[in-house]
């Protein structure tokens, strides 16, 4: 179960008691507050709190840049200008606090984004639930032959079944031993902070994660990308759905200039100019390495 009965009761209580406020409110975000978006087999993302909206971004920009933004006639145009020219500070005026339930190995990837405030469920004080991420068969894949950090073709048949059985049995056995080691009524047992070290990386943890919009966009640009690991990408996709309702102008600009755009090197730009002039440009005369050329062609073909 992604949410415990206690958490569900808390959500119902919070949503049943709205409070009047004078602060800026995003109607789109209000619809998401406290509600869980289920991710993977036991995980979720839900909004606990937020600050700011599209107007807050523009307000901060106009205070900062003054007359320099008067040529921009509306909020959407200003936000697109800020995104296009990499003016990041106004986007830092918006913040979001999320409650996330996720497998530990996903959390270890996620925590690499060090520009957020994080408070994680403590297995020193509490006993972790018997909940493990077990991939769907279509996500059980072999190592990629072209990418050292990615997966390749999906396993099938007996090989897929063999791997799934190992994942399930190892997780169950480790948790059984975890429970056996923890203090019981008839034995002294092991401290929780030590017993947890026997748990597998696919067990679920939870945390509160608070981040400003600028750094959230950086997270989403990397983790909602098609090349990101599936298990973290689905969380990023869920967050994208929330952000699109929270700050629609900013998210559309982010999609256009970051997710859908591309950064080209000096050599790549030179190749584009030569191609437009009708020149025959190849990897050999481009000045790029094979890897750079492959990525460049991938941008042009997509």
From TrEMBL:
Q: What is its EC number?
A: 2.1.1.148
Q: Which InterPro entries match?
A: Thymidylate_synthase_ThyX (IPR003669), Thymidylate_synthase_ThyX_sf (IPR036098)
- How many cofactor units bind, and how? Binds 4 FAD per tetramer. Each FAD binding site is formed by three monomers.
Instruction: Enumerate the SUPFAM superfamilies for this protein.
Output: Thymidylate synthase-complementing protein Thy1
Q: Which reaction does it catalyse?
A: dUMP + (6R)-5,10-methylene-5,6,7,8-tetrahydrofolate + NADPH + H(+) = dTMP + (6S)-5,6,7,8-tetrahydrofolate + NADP(+)
Which cofactors?
FAD
Q: What Pfam family is a match for this entry? A: Thy1
Keyword terms of this UniProt record: FAD, Flavoprotein, Methyltransferase, NADP, Nucleotide biosynthesis, Transferase
Residues that hold FAD according to the record: 89, 112-114, 120, 212-214, 218
Per the record, the domain of life is Bacteria
The active site consists of: 223
The annotated pathway is: Pyrimidine metabolism; dTTP biosynthesis
Q: What class of enzyme is it?
A: transferase
Question: Which GO MF term does the entry hold, naming one?
Answer: NADPH binding
**What residues does dUMP bind to?**
109-112, 120-124, 196, 223
Tell me one GO biological process term.
dTTP biosynthetic process
Q: How does it assemble?
A: Homotetramer.
The task this protein performs is described as: Catalyzes the reductive methylation of 2'-deoxyuridine-5'-monophosphate (dUMP) to 2'-deoxythymidine-5'-monophosphate (dTMP) while utilizing 5,10-methylenetetrahydrofolate (mTHF) as the methyl donor, and NADPH and FADH(2) as the reductant.
Q: What HAMAP family would the database entry show?
A: ThyX
| Annotated family | Belongs to the thymidylate synthase ThyX family.
Q: Identify this protein by name.
A: Flavin-dependent thymidylate synthase
Query: What is the organism of origin for this protein?
Result: Actibacterium atlanticum
Q: What is the lineage of its organism?
A: Bacteria, Pseudomonadati, Pseudomonadota, Alphaproteobacteria, Rhodobacterales
Gene symbol here is thyX
């Amino acid at each position: 179960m992604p949410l415990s009965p206690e958490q569900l009761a808390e959500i119902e209580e919070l949503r049943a008691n709205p409070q009047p406020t004078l602060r800026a409110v995003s109607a789109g975000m209000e619809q998401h507050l406290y509600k869980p978006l289920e991710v993977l087999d036991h995980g979720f993302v839900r909004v606990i709190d937020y600050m700011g909206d599209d107007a807050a971004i523009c307000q901060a920009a106009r205070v900062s840049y003054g007359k320099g933004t008067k040529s921009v006639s509306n909020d959407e145009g200003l936000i697109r200008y800020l995104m296009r020219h990499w003016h990041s500070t106004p986007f830092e005026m918006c913040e979001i606090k999320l409650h996330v339930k996720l497998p530990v190995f996903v959390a270890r990837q996620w925590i690499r984004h060090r520009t957020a405030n994080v408070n994680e469920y403590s297995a020193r004080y509490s006993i972790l639930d018997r909940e493990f991420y077990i991939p769907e068969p279509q996500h059980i894949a072999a190592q990629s032959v072209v990418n050292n950090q990615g997966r390749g073709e999906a396993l099938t048949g007996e090989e897929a079944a063999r791997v799934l059985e190992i994942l399930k049995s190892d997780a169950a056995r480790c948790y059984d031993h975890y429970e056996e080691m923890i203090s019981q009524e008839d034995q002294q047992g092991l401290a929780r902070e030590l017993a947890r070290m026997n748990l597998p990386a696919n067990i679920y943890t939870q945390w509160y994660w608070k981040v400003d919009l600028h750094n959230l966009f950086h997270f989403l640009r990397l983790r909602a990308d098609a090349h990101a690991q599936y298990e973290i990408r689905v969380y990023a996709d869920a967050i994208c759905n929330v952000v699109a309702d929270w700050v629609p102008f900013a998210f559309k600009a982010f999609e256009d200039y970051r997710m859908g755009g591309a950064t080209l090197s000096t050599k790549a730009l030179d190749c584009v100019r030569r191609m437009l002039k009708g020149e025959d440009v190849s990897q050999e005369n481009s000045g790029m390495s094979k890897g750079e050329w492959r990525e460049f062609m991938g941008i042009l073909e997509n």
